[in-house]
Fold:
Amino acid sequence: MNVTPFVLLELQPVFIWLYQLLEKIGLSGSWLTVASYTGLSLFLFGLLSVVALFLVWWERKISGHIQQRYGPMRNGWHGWYQTIMDGMKLLLKEDIKVVTRDKPVFFWAPIIAFVAAFVAYVVIPFGKGLIVADLNIGILYILAVTTFTVISLFMAGWGSHNKYALLGGMRSAAQVVSYEVPMVVSILTVIVFTGSLSMVDIVNSQSGIFFNWFIFRLPFGPIAFLTYITAATAEANRTPFDIPEAEQELVAGYNVEYSGMKFAMFFLAEFINMFTVAAIATTLFLGGWHGAILPSWLWFLIKTLSIVLLLMLFRWTYPRLRVDQLMEFAWKFLVPLTFANLILASWMKYARWYW
Amino acid sequence: MTSPQVGIVFWIIAFVMLISAFMVVSLKNIFHSALFLILCLFSVAGIYVLLQAEFLAAAQVLIYVGAVAVLMLFAIMLTNNLASKKIRQANRNVLVGFFVSVIFCFITLVLLVKTYVSVWGKLKPQAVLPAQNVLVFGKYLMTKFMLPFEVVSVLLLAALIGAIVLARKERS
Structure:
């Protein structure tokens, strides 16, 4: 490993030092495990909340500049703490509840959405040695836990007792069930090559120069990346696949009856989901935290935020697809393409026609 | 593996699982039943994690929660008649059904205890590291259990084609 002036900025030693500090103050055995994981969870929670707040502000700035306006400008430099003010406003607002709502379902939906958005970060490698738990099922774990997002949308749509919300929930289910297939198959293309589901192994198999990144594995790497990004945009319910919350048709879709804190939870969960999608794309296709000179966590952030920027540009430049177009695109174009790509990749792996 | 913490977690999961399974068959609102079914299936995944079968747990959540339960919820939402009605889940055979299930439970219990007594102290856990069990699983699927795997695939394909044939409208 090359010694660079930035090597001191790696974060792994900090966490090791903190762990040893916990050991020094007399914790041991399961208490040490509980304390360290609680600390990590709180750290991740704080970090991701800040990231979500930043992404909301970023999205508003980008949409503004694409539409030839400035976006938020009042609070701080170019409105940088606008989202914090908005969040405080949402916290203080009255929590309006529909009388005819389905009480437990209405109550649990935002909580499940919020939790489901966070749990995927257990297996995402943020940098060198920065991973909460290197599960051997890695990517499969993420695919499993993110299904709870759909269920929360369902519950929100059902519990609101509102036809727009119900339509939004149903649309999201149809969409997610369809786009899960091409997404999983394009992820499988990567797994065929790494031979492991563990996120750490996937990142390590792309080490070295950046031609080792999976996206540069011609010809199937770029195809898998593009199909993944397309399907992931649909999974994150973003334009051009945002029919679950199409504002012009459904008012706001599944979250139309939510207000105050509960709405804020849905909103934050949505932006964290977008960051998750981008983080998975970074880990699988763009070499994860590998990169020259700069510290690893910074590389991870740069790559992930570039993907987020791409998703935001999609949102503000492409028109929304119709429902039937959406289904046709998934089943008649993406699914055959990803399967053909998977077969090609497996064959090339078997014949060792790659570098 | 058999530390007291694992025992506590097991009892919590088992409790949640049984309660939610009971809710599935007793609630009057079919949407709530479906949600409790999801909770029940998720608890089963929790038991798999305790048994260090992470792959099975992930597959359980991915297939049952992510696909089967979501399709159930979808179907409930689409069928307007079921959506807002309170339904009775039991018919007049409820007493007979209760006795049958008690007998079934008893037989299962006897079998379990007998198996447990006969293999007491003889079985040792297979030496597969948790970090490798996906690999081992994949290898077995492609070698020793190739035939069952293929048969299941063909069965699923047949079910898929059958569903399409049934759903397709006849052209006159």
